[in-house]
User: What shape does this take?
Amino acid sequence: MQSASEQSEAAERPAPPEHVYPDHWEADVVLRDGGTARIRPITADDADRLVSFYEQVSDESKYYRFFAPYPRLSAKDVHRFTHHDFVDRVGLAATVGGEFIATVRYDRIDDRGMPASAPADEAEVAFLVQDAHQGRGVASALLEHIAAVARERDIRRFAAEVLPANNKMIKVFTDAGYTQKRSFEDGSVRLHLDLEPTDRSLAVQRAREQRAEARSVQRLLTPRSVAVVGAGRAPGGVGRTVLRNLIEAGFTGRVYAVNAALGDGAAELDGVPAHSSIGAIGEPVDLAIVAVPAERVPEAVADCGEHGVRGLVVLSAGYAESGPAGRDRQRELVRQARSYGMRIIGPNAFGIINTADDVRLNASLAPQMPAAGRIGLFAQSGAIGIALLAGLHRHGAGLSSFISAGNRADVSGNDFLQHWYDDPGTDVVLLYLESIGNPRKFTRLARRTAAVKPVVVVKGARHSGSAPPGHRVPVTRIPHATVSALLRQAGVIRVDTITELVDAGLLLAAQPLPAGPRVAILGNSESLGLLTYDACLTEGLRPLRPLDLTTAAVPADFRDALAAALADETADAVVVTAIPWVGENGATEFGDGEVLAAALREAVASAPAPTKPVVVVHVEMGGLAEALAVATSTRPTPAGRGGPPTGTRPATRPTDQTVTPGTPATAVTPGTDGTRGTAVTPDMDGASRAVVTSDTQATPSADVTADTTAPPAVPTTIPSYPAAERAVRALAEAVRYGQWRRQAAEPGRVPEYEDIDEAGAAALIERTLGDRAGDGADVRGVTLGAAEAGELLARYGIAVLPTLPAPTPDDAVAAAARLGYPVALKTTAPHLRHRPDLGGVRLDLASEGQLRTAYAELTEVLGKPEELLPVVQAMVPRGVDTVVRSAIDPAVGAVLSFGLSGAASELLGDTAHRLVPATDRDVAELVRSLRTAPLLFGWRGSAPVDTPALEELLLRVSRLVDDHPEVVAVSLEPVVVAPRGLSVLGATVRLAPPPPRTDLGPRSLPSY
Assistant: This one.
């Protein structure tokens, strides 16, 4: 794409001036195939790299770039393409292993297409991608980054000239999502792109990000070959343990052992080929498990990178968790791996597992391969990961994949959310997080994933005030409760303990989502039923009256009662409670758990459709929990990923009857209906657990189908819990999530208000920040005066009640005369502000005499006028005093908060939060989510307040903060909400230069 500007540049443009190297333009990106590349500015030191790169480009690609045969670059060309001023002329390169794989450059031009400088705001752009790397999305990533650079340099449009046959490059431009014009001139296609981001360009960018990051995780989870680097020659040790786990899990690909102490000759370890290095293997290796001391890791990484390894799992410790020196070592590890296009899990990782039958990868320290299932599990802690694996195994739950990321220096929970979002093998996502590296991105990804499958999160290190050792994260200033509220807004099921994480995961993986909060309770213990009833009320559910089957009930009674409850249209879920029953001889029957489980499964199987979740609460019922964990009944899988929130039963992988290595099988227990029943196997902690042994009549094989259009039949399980509180808490989380899913299907909107003056507000903000900067003020933050704050808020239709200072009694009288009686007199001293309980406010002063008396009382009791800073305001209609705030947190972004004034919000913490921009649905939920919300809706006979006016105020504040990131804090206090209308009595606004928005820039991995 040689242009007029390039042809005339050498003659017309002087040598570029020296500018500081813009190192903030450097970035690591994930490409379409899951590999990585580094994007950085091209400098004069890159001459040899450029020449080498160009020599590897085909003649056809060169022709497309220069519109003519161009076999080699002249010295003049090399100089021009490596010398830039980083303002009017910029070149970026994508590199792998330090070598160029693609380049892009822009040259600022005037309206005649000739070289120009600012204020010209158009530039000509040209790409060249090495043929071996075409189709990897390199050009699309470069376009995002060069466009961001251009906007930073006040360039608003790109022009590009492309030959008609160069379809790939035309597609790069047309698919980018920018507003564009296209024309055909002199045998070439002329494209003009407006670089202002659009909703479509942002959507395109995020879709590409999702595909690339999901693919990078898929490459780690589905390798065709694995090498364990650091497998010791003697049994034991981390490397040898992982090697044994890989083999015993039945990994379907090739496995190699690597030990530098081995000679060049052929050797074996645990029956697999062993070599001294990756290079000595002589075959492609997709994944390397690194288990060598930290000081030897760089050598191992270089060996892997130079021989085409795609990803690393670094089990080695001694990195950021060990102190500053380890933190530096960790940064260098990430830089080194990314320079070769590799992604890293770890360091200090526990490993990864993929239970898919065509992979069976156990590249971890877990001694036993989990059963295959539909749960995706991510844990930052290896110890917690072990506990979660054991808990899920104990309840018969299977996993699709497991990752324990350690220090998560590169691959994080965000990457796995990208993968699990559209992974057909995962129906439920469980996350144990100790830190969130990019909270804005996590919230965005969690919201999207939660729209199709549950995301359950437990967060450790909630109250430590700092990130765990080894985790590099932004520090948030907002309380833990606020973070939890924002996660719930995004659809995340937020729990407090790993026990609750397992409890919720079991229910969500095995049962449909409830259609509502109505819960039927049945069982053979009145007391246990009442405990369950109370637990439901505590969790905000609507329990029906418990059905007591009495202690004389037998399994058939449970079956009939459960079938009736499932058919009852007044119930959305069923809790079955069970205690051991007394036999004919008076002895307690502890061994009938399996029989009861069969009866309950029979009732569920007889239901016309799986639309209601069933959970069981049991006390000392031998064998019941294990038998219920067995999937023996079948149910068609709902069509479509995720399915509707009501009546959805997550699909389950067909259970294969192969005995897992190291798991002995035992006797088969007969089923009550004449089927083969179930086999009981020892659990990892010694308890018994049942596995599927259904015959072909119960579970049809893949080639036996009555209707080729019907989805396959899959097993179902019934989760059981040893305490009513645990079962109900898990059920309540499912109810709330189901409600969120239904609402997410019809999201709210951000209303438009015709009286908002966005341009006027922007001009006022720019002028204010500029004036304060000129006065030498701290431009990191400026608190506006009352008049300035009122003017800015008025641009968004927010009227603040006038406040007049009253330094003397005469000034107070004059102010009252101006405002009109009755008036309020109040102090504004910081220690008395918004504290009417301390006596700093006098209301309904209807005359001059009352005002002077009140003034005298205030100054006599509380202090001198110069200390109290008294003011006068007109009285407003009585109502409920509330507080509206918004602030920008460095970790989560802009947050809108609402509460009632006084002790409710300040002492009890009864404040609700939503992310900005808030929708009409968000603010409606915000107002109603307070524990003190009944005060707004006519509590104890009081008049309900004007909630529509309150919701409109919240939306206007949200719009102000969202439209103008310079508005870093707004506080409206008090806002008196009356039965008709509201009044804003006080306002504080703080401005600062806008903080960087990492979630809106071009795609990039976290920098190190």
The longest strand covers residues 99-109. The CA atoms of residues 552 and 584 lie 10 Å apart. The chain has a mean pLDDT of 84. The two ends are 35 Å apart (CA to CA).
